[in-house]
Please model this.
Amino acid sequence: MSPAVQIALAVALVVVVLLLLLVLRRDRPRDLVAPDRPAGDGQAEVLRLASAGRTVEAVKVLREQTGLSLLDAKRAVDALAAGGSWPPGPPAPGKGVDEAVRAEAARLLYRGRKIQAIKVVREHTHMSLADAKRYVEGL
Model:
């Protein structure tokens, strides 16, 4: 067999394999069920979703109900799915902020240096960026 015929057969084989993969992929059934809406009982709903392997939805419900960061919510869902308990959430923004930090942030905010005020709050409290921003805006 000549090299040109071998190349033509190899190309034809590759095309047939690709077409088969496309056809098989297209015929795969899709999940057409709408996601459940959160129920009133937060932990039970999150636990139900996590147990069903619906981690993304469980994280979303938990974040909506508690205001946790994405990372904290993911860790909480993983702990629940592994049979653990509901870990405590982070402290509410503004709780545990030292008076000196509050005064410095207020001084910076008064001078129009909002970003620096947020940085001061974050450095001294380890709040998330969003929580520190809300705290400074509430001063």
In short: The chain is about 65% helix and 0% strand. The two ends are 83 Å apart (CA to CA). Helices lie at 3-26, 42-51, 55-66, 70-81, 99-110, 114-125, 129-137.
